[in-house]
Amino acid sequence: MGAVQKLATVVIIGLVAMATVLVVYLADEPNRRGGETTEQESLAIERGTDLYITYCLQCHGPNGYGAQGGEDPQRVGAVLNQAPFPPDLENPASVVFQSDDPVQQDRAEAYVRYSIEFGKPSDPRIAVKSMPAFGQELNVEEINDLVYVVTNGDWNYIYNQTVLVTGESVAQAECDADPSNTEACEAVEHPEPVYPTAPPPIGTDDEATPAASEGGSTVLEALDPFEWSETELTVQPGDTIEVVNAGVSDHDFTVEELGISEVLTPDPIAITIPEDAAPGEYEFICSIPGHAENGMVGTLIIEAP
Ligand SMILES: [Cu+2]
Predict the structure, then answer these.
(1) Number of domains into which the chain is organized
(2) Residue 274: which CATH number?
(3) d(CA 23, CA 280)
(4) 251 CA to centre of ligand 1 in angstroms
(5) Alpha carbon of 56 to ligand 1 centroid (Å)
(6) How many angstroms does the Cα of residue 216 sit away from the middle of ligand 1?
(7) Taking a C-beta distance cutoff of 8 angstroms, is the pair 244, 222 a contact?
(8) Which of 85, 53, 52, 56 has the alpha carbon at shortest distance from 68?
(9) Which of 133, 216, 244, 263 has the greatest number of beta carbons closer than 10 A?
């Protein structure tokens, strides 16, 4: 063999070896990607479930059966869990969110995404939405995770997670309200599952306890979803307002201009208007993302003493 032929042989062997390595590498690609996807998927389910608990649970329920879940009082949301038990859907064909058919699955994802972004009903002629639009307060990743959980999540997991997290926040609220309540404070670490109670049906909030004046203090309730029992409060500097979380979701009472921000609990919290607060109108809100935007806004009027 001449020197040129030797060189050519070496080059060819080299190329064949590289090609083989590449083929083997590429052949394994689906496995590698598969492994990553599964981890991504379970992370998406975890994040999506947390978001579901924060934003959707109050209307759609811990098991995703919404108003059909037979809870008392009834929740207001539609059925998201398509498992046959217990709701007997009137038109099951139109609402399959989890299926093996990729075309149907694509449609479901688009529909769920649209519902989350724009709220329900989506008819622009109807101003009052029975489900708020989340397109403003949730970012694309959050909406992706929520879509993923509704279209791929295991509702048994969501349910179990929901009762645990709700149990934990109930215990946390009791512990915050009374740190000497050791039972509650220990339960934060090992929460007992608490079946979350449903919020009052939409439209009955007017019947909720009106702001009662009790011994110079005003009672203000944070209600689910996204509502204050009063949207206007009139006080004087030094007055106390009793604020209570009468809902299941977390809420706080925030008056930014006065530097007031208190996390609310099922037991009323006394909030004192500073003696030196200037008379005028202030905005009180719940500062949890999405709550003020969806209606947890009111006016605090401070009168001159
Ligand atoms: Cu709130």
Answers:
(1) 2
(2) 2.60.40.420
(3) 74
(4) 4
(5) 13
(6) 25
(7) yes
(8) 85
(9) 244
pLDDT bracket for residue 213 (50, 70, 90): very low
User: In the numeric block, which tokens belong to residue 195?
Assistant: 């079946």
pLDDT tops 90 at residue 149: yes
In angstroms, the CA 86 to CA 98 distance is 17
Bond preceding residue 86 cis, omega within 30 of 0:
yes
Query: Whole-angstrom Cα distance, residue 22 to residue 18?
Result: 6
pLDDT digits (tens, 9 = 90+) for 35-67: 566 888 889 999 999 999 999 998 898 888 888
CB 286 within 8 A of CB 253: yes
Q: What is the pLDDT of residue 37?
A: 64
Collapsing DSSP to helix, strand or coil, 100 comes out as coil
Q: How far is the CA of 136 from the centre of ligand 1 (A)?
A: 16
The model's pLDDT over 264-275, given as tens digits with 9 standing for 90+, comes to: 988 889 999 999
The secondary structure of residue 135, as a DSSP letter, is T
CA angle 63, 64, 69 (to 5 degrees): 75
Residue 191 has pLDDT above 80, yes or no: no
In angstroms, the CA 63 to CA 195 distance is 10
How much distance in Å is there from the Cα of 260 to the middle of ligand 1?
15
pTM of the full predicted structure?
A: 0.57
Query: Among the three residues 153, 179, 197, which one is the final residue of a domain in this structure?
Result: 153
